[in-house]
C-alpha cells in the first residue's frame, strides 16, 4: 500500500468509525428490532415476525396517520412553491441592496430555532391567541376560529419553516435561465403569462423539483412543529413514532413505522434524482 | 435572467411572504417584554422581568450551558473530522469516494426522528443513555454534512499545485496543508462552521431521545416548558435563542458575506 493510501485511510478513519457506530449499526439493530414480536403484556419477544409491518400497513389507525402525513406533505410543498415563486422573482429582479436585505430576511428565520418558531405560531394561532383575539376585538367573529390542533395550524407552521429552503433553491434555478430566451418569447408577442408558463416554468423545473422533494421529505419527517401545533391528539408519522418509543414503549412497532417513513423519504429522493437527471439531459440535449 | 423591473403585484406578494416568514419570531420577541403574566402583542408595558426570571432559573441556565458547550464541541470535532475526510475524498486518496460521501450526507436525507430513535435503542442496549460523549458524537453526525459540503466546495477552487510547491520547497505534508491549503479553505469552512453550530444548537428531534430527564438543552427545555403551560418567560428564553441566531447571521454576513452564496 502506498504512503498516500495509508494517510488517506487515517484521514477517513474517525468519520468511518463514527458512521459505523453512530449510524449504520443503530439502523441495522433497529431493522432487526422491527422484526421482533411484541405484546403489551410481555414486551419485546424473541421470535421473528413481519406482523409489525403488516400492522402498520393494514391497521386503519396507522393508515389514517400515514395518509394524513402524506397529504400534509403535498399541501405544504404546494403552498411553499406558490409563496416562494414571487419572492424568488422579486429578489432576482431587485438591485443589489434590496437583494441582500431580502436574502438576509429569508435566511434569518432559517437560523431561528424550530421550537421557537412553532411557539411563535402557537402565540398567534391559539384559541385565545393574537389573531383570534384581534378578530373578536374587531367584532368580525363571535367565537375563536380553530386555527390550531388540526391540519391548518400544522400546515401554517411547516410552510413557514420550510419556505426559506424553497426560496433559496428557486433563486439559482431561475437565475440559470438565459435572459434571451424569455426576451425572444416576448418579442415574438407571447404574453407575460404565456412566457412564464411555457418558457420560465419548464426551464426552472429541475430546481422546482429539487426544492419540492426537499420540502416534502422534511415535512413528512417533521416532529416538533406537528407536535406543538397539532397537539397531542392530531398525530403524524413522526409524532406517532415518538409516542411508540417514549409513551407506549412498543419499540418494534415504532421501529417498523420509522422504516416505512424512511423508505418513503429515500424512495422519493432516489426517484427525483433519476427524473432530475433525465430533465437536465433533455434540456442540454435540446440545446446542442 | 433578464433584470426586468418588478411589477407592483410581485413587490406586494414578496413583501407579504417576507412578513409571513418573520412574523412568529417578531411576535415572540415583542411578547417577551410584556408586563402582563400572559403573552400579548403589542406588549402591555415594557419590562426585563421575564429575562431576569429565565437567567435566574437554574434549569434554564444549565440548559443554556449544555446547549452552548455541546454546539461548540460538535462544531470543532465536525470541522476537524469533516476537513480530514473532505481532503482525502477530494484528492482521491481512498477508494469508494461516492459511497463514503453519500454515507456522510445520509443524516441530511434520513428523517431526523428515525436517527433519534435508532440511537435511542442503540444507547439503551449499551446502557449508555444520558452519556455525554454519545450526545456529542450524535451532534457531530448531524453537523458533519454541512462542514463536508462546504469543505468539498472550497477544495475544488484550490490549485493543488500550490500545496505541492510548498512540499517541493521542503515543507512536510501537514505543514504544507496548514500553511497553504487551510488559509484558502477558511472562508468556505466559516460558512460550514456557522451552519454546523446553528444546527447543533437547534436540534430537537435527535437530542430529545438521548437526554435523561435530568438533562436538557435550551430548545428541548423550551419545548417541554410549552407543554406545561405558556407564559412570557418562555418567550424570553426563546428571544435569547433568536438573539443568538441574529448574532450568527451578522457574523456570517460580515466574515463571508453569506448572501453571495445564493
Give a brief description.
The complex is a heterodimer of chains A (288) and B (262). Helix content of chain A is 78%, strand content 3%.
| Uncertain segments of chain B | none
Largest sheet of chain A: 2 strands, antiparallel
Number of helices of chain A: 13
How many individual β-strands of chain A? Answer: 2
Shape of chain B: globular
| Share of residues in strands of chain A | under 5%
Structural class label of chain B: mainly alpha
Oligomer: heterodimer
- Average predicted local confidence, pLDDT of chain B: 87
Q: What is the strand tally of chain B?
A: 0
Total domain modules of chain A:
1
CATH fold assignment of chain A: MetI-like fold
The radius of gyration over CA of chain B amounts to 22 Å
What share of the residues of chain A lie within helices? over 70%
Quickly give the CATH architecture of chain A: Orthogonal Bundle
Strand-and-helix sequence of chain A, N→C?
HEEHHHHHHHHHHHH
Order of helices and strands of chain B: HHHHHHHHHHH
Q: In the CATH hierarchy, what is the superfamily of chain A? A: MetI-like
Structural class of chain A: mainly alpha
Could you give the topology of this structure?
The complex is a heterodimer of chains A (288) and B (262).
Chain A: H1 3-33, E1 36-39, E2 43-48, H2 51-58, H3 60-93, H4 96-111, H5 114-125, H6 130-137, H7 151-175, H8 179-187, H9 192-203, H10 205-221, H11 224-230, H12 237-246, H13 251-287
Antiparallel strand pairs in A: 1-2
Chain B: H1 8-31, H2 49-55, H3 58-90, H4 97-109, H5 112-126, H6 132-156, H7 160-168, H8 173-202, H9 207-210, H10 218-227, H11 232-256
Helix pairs in contact in B: 1-11, 2-11, 3-6, 3-8, 3-10, 4-6, 6-8, 7-8, 8-11, 10-11
Descriptive account of the structure:
- The complex is a heterodimer of chains A (288) and B (262).
- Chain A is mainly alpha-helical and 288 residues long.
- Chain A has one domain: MetI-like (MetI-like fold), CATH 1.10.3720.
- Helices cover 78% and strands 3% of the residues of chain A.
- Chain A has helices at 3-33, 51-58, 60-93, 96-111, 114-125, 130-137, 151-175, 179-187, 192-203, 205-221, 224-230, 237-246, 251-287, and strands spanning 36-39, 43-48.
- The model of chain A has no long low-confidence stretch (mean pLDDT 88).
- Chain B is mainly α and 262 residues long.
- Chain B has a single domain, classed as MetI-like (MetI-like fold, Orthogonal Bundle), CATH 1.10.3720.
- In chain B, 74% of the residues lie in helices and 0% in strands.
- Chain B has 11 helices and no strands.
- The longest helix of chain B has 33 residues, at 58-90.
- Chain B starts with 7 loop residues before the first helix and ends in a 6-residue tail after the last helix.
